[in-house]
Amino acid sequence: MAQNEIKPALNAVVWVLLALGVLLAIRQARQGDSPVIEWKRVAMDGHRTGAQCVTAENVDTALGTFTDDGYIAPNGTVFPEDSPVPEIASALMDAQPKLAGLKVVVGHSARMMMNLRTDPDLPLGNLFADVLRARGSKDFKVPMDFAVTNFGGIRCPMPEGAITLEDIQSMFPFKNYMCYVQMKGSNLTKLLEQLAGTKAFQAVSGVRVKVKDHQLVEALIGGKKIDPSRVYNVTTIDFLLDGGDRIAIGALAEKVVLTHTLLKDVMLDYVKECEAKGILVDGAADGRVVME
Question: How far apart are alpha carbons 177 and 239 in whole angstroms?
Fold first, then answer.
């Protein structure tokens, strides 16, 4: 074949391949043959090594040991030095002295308390909202009528038994600060209507509400209907003042007072107070938010 005939022939082949590719793509789309990606969670249960979450009580045994034979995992499995497992274990062990201060036990919990955004009436959310309202009354020296914080700011469950400083910092890793807001009852009702319109409300204290189809049906503050003209005292967090989680409390406020008090310190102080009194930290689902 002459050289001037090769190029048109190659072009023809390319166009044929492109056409076949387009036809194949159309066929797969029509038949639903496009690849499906599925994600699933796998529990980190330490089944290969028996390694456990490090706490104040098990620092010396949770991650295993090193000997001349290599790395010996807590479940007795020996991993030779050329295995990747010893390198990972060594990195974790080397970090423990720097983390030792976080393993200090600051209190004890009656049970493990979960935090689920899909359920606005859970012990952990209720507990922290109550703690926040009580701390607001103490620090601002006025009785707080209402408190609201976001579930997304509580990042992990409260463990059962010993509570370490690390647990508290893991629960509240963000730099969210407590603040005080004065709000007319009419605007407080608007706020509760905003919360009702979200997927799962938020963690609240001092109020009992009923929501149906994401519409506020009833709201009681201190057991009474909200007075539109009364000014209510509210403890909340700076994250919710200006659009966090699509809530803008600041726009509804008559007055806002900011603080440098982090949420983790609010919970930490409460846990320490309970420990000093010999009280187990606990919360309750009490029907303060009913969503239908």
Answer: 8
Tell me, yes or no, whether 1 lies in a domain: no
pLDDT one-digit tens code per residue, 22-45: 555 555 555 555 566 666 655 555
Same domain (yes/no): 69, 177: no
- Is residue 137 located within the same domain as residue 251? yes
137 Cβ neighbours under 8 A, 6+ residues apart = 143, 144, 235
How far, in Å, CA of 237 to CA of 150, rounded? 8
The fraction of the chain above a pLDDT of 90, given in percent, is: 57
CATH code assigned at 163: 3.90.780.10
- Residues near 222 by Cβ (< 8 Å), separated by ≥ 6? 145, 206
- Amino acid letter, residue 271: V
Work out whether strand 177-184 and strand 289-291 pair parallel, antiparallel, or are unpaired: unpaired
Question: How much is the pTM?
Answer: 0.75
Q: How far apart are CA 135 and CA 143, in angstroms?
A: 10
Amino acid at 262: L
154-199 residue pLDDT tens: 999 999 999 999 999 999 999 999 999 999 999 999 999 999 988 7
Q: Are residues 93 and 167 in the same domain?
A: no
Q: Which domain holds residue 92?
A: 43-101
**Under a CB-based contact definition with an 8 Å cutoff, are residues 137 and 144 in contact?**
yes
Q: Are 163 and 104 contacting, i.e. CB atoms less than 8 angstroms apart?
A: no
Domain count, the chain: 2
CA distances from 93 to 68, 162, 222, 235, 266 (A): 17, 21, 51, 41, 31
